[in-house]
C-alpha cells in the first residue's frame, strides 16, 4: 500500500509539474549523446538518450527518479532481511517515507549517481563478507558507472579505503580493494580522455568555476545541519543519541562498521566543507541509504518503529 500510494502520487506529480531548466539541459544531452558534456560526466545524458527512444513525455523521462527510491528501499531490505525481517521492513519503509523520496520527481545527475553508488557499496560489503574477487570487481565496475554520473563517487572510493584501514589488521583485504580500484579505472579513463580533449571542462567547472561564492560563514553550517535533519530521520538520530551503549560493540560487527563509515565519512567531510561552502541538499543523497541500514543494525525493533 505504501509503495502504491507513493508511486501513484509521484506519477501524477511528474506529469503535471513543469520541466525544470536543468532537466531540459540534460535532455538535450540525451538528444545528442557524447562521451562527455560541459559540467558533469555523461551518464545522465546516456540514460535520457535511452528514454527518448521511448517518448519525449516528461513523465517518461522522469521514470528513473520515480523508481529509484523503490530500488534503493529494496536494496535496504535485502541487506537486512537475513538478520531480522521485521527490521528490514521498518528500515525500508523509513527510507521510502523520507520527504524527498515522496516529492522528488526531477531527473538529474544525482539519479544514476545514487543508483550506482548504493549498489556498488552493497557489492563491496558482500565482497568483504564473502572474500569474493568477483564481487570486488563488480563493486569497482558500479563505482566506475557512478563516477561517470558525478564526481561525488570519489567519496565512496574514500569510504572503501577508510573501511579497509579501520578493519583489524589480520582481516584487511588490500588485494580486494586494489581489484575494486582496478575495475573502476577504465570508466575513469573515459572521462579523463574526454576532459583532455575538451580543455578539462568538467574539472574547471567543478573545482573552480562554481566556487566563486565560497568563504567563511556561520550560516552555511547551520543550513547543512538543517539539511541533515531533513534527509535523515530526526527520530532515529535522537534514538541513536539516547542509546549510547550501541557504540561499545558495534566496531566488532563488520557490517555495522561498514555502513556507519559509509554514511559518516562523506557526511562528515561535507560538514567540514559547509564552513566555507553551501552544501546542496542533493549532495548528500547518495549516502543517506547507508544511514538507514546502519540504524537498523544498531537500534532495536521498538526504536525503529518509533
Mean pLDDT across the residues is: 92
Poorly predicted runs are none
Q: Helix/strand/pairing class, anyone?
A: mainly alpha
Total helical segments = 18
* Content of β-strand: under 5%
- Biggest β-sheet, characterized? none
N-C termini distance: 20 Å
- Measured as a percent range, the helix fraction is over 70%
Secondary-structure element series? HHHHHHHHHHHHHHHHHH
What radius of gyration results from the CA coordinates? 19 Å
What's this model, at a glance?
Helix 5 packs antiparallel against helix 6, helix 5 runs parallel beside helix 8 and helix 9 packs antiparallel against helix 10. With 306 residues, the protein is mainly alpha-helical.
What does this structure look like?
- There is one protein chain.
- α9 (133-147) packs parallel to α11 (174-197).
- The model has no long low-confidence stretch (mean pLDDT 92).
- The protein contains 18 helices and no strands.
- It is an all-alpha fold and 306 residues long.
- Helix content is 71%, strand content 0%.
- It has helices spanning 2-16, 21-31, 43-52, 58-61, 63-80, 85-96, 99-103, 110-130, 133-147, 153-166, 174-197, 201-207, 219-231, 234-242, 246-249, 254-273, 288-298, 301-305.
